Protein: RNI-like protein
Organism: Athelia psychrophila
Amino acid sequence: MPKHASEGGILLVKADGAEAIVAPPQHCNPIATSGPTVGLPLSDTFNCAHGVDLGGTDIASIFAAAPRLRSLSLLHGFVGAIPQLPWKQLQELVIGASVSVKNCREILKLMPDLQRCEICSNIGASGIPYSGTITLPVLRSMSLQFRSGQGLADILSSMCLPIIEDLRVSFAMELTTVTEALVSALSGGALVKLVLKSAPEFITPASMVAILRAAPKLQELLFQVNSVISPEFLEDFSGPDAYLVPDLQKLELECYGEPVDVSTFAGMIEGRCLPNVQRPLKQVVLKRIIGGPIDPAVKYRLRQIRNRGIDVQVVLADHTPVDLDSF
């Protein structure tokens, strides 16, 4: 991405492998003019001196003759009505930090061919009930980063994602109905990779169990929720009577600012590499361990797991790898 691509009010456009920073002509100074065009200079680079009025007619005219446009990044938000852009033909979309939940939903309703989506919003809940369902029939990858858990729940609860395979979810405030909304969005059962980041108090072991039950085909699980690592979750995750996500190949935990129970974490892995397990884990990563050295007995257990053919990686808060062979 060009160096100045994060300036306020600009758009990053991609088509046929080319990129352009686009803004209304009165706000831009062209730097280069070469390469293919599809109604706008897709290989041009523009230097924005001012913000862009996304509601202006000049924006609509820029995109009016861009039939090959497939990927769009809104690197700055907008207020009011959603801009008149060619939403229906897009396959990839990135929405920046200042777009309301209501406008996000209105945009997604217009995108039946969307395959990959990233939404980063610091705006809270919409406060407006949404009774309909937004079906994204070909969406395979989505990243949702919200400051508000309720804002995230508002987005997820309105979605139907029948073939979603890769989902990344991050929120920094109240849990509210995130778990219920997430379980509903995953009802298609196609998810193979889940990244879940939240403050520890906002995801409980019971919540995590419910989420994983909605993703029976999951192969990669990366989470940043220390509170999940508990005897209660251990029993559901790898116990003989409630074996969650049997196809899991990679498990990664990144500690969230407080010590983690490494012994219980080791127990989660041990339950996945028993002789009767048909598809055991292949890789385990434990990042940002804090709170003192790992007990030698736990190190021994991790070595035993590694000796069974599992790639075990433990990394301290300063990014120093832990030598499992040291005593």
Q: What stands out?
A: The helical segments are 57-63, 101-108, 149-157, 178-185, 205-213, 231-238, 262-270, 296-307. The first helix runs from residue 57 to 63.
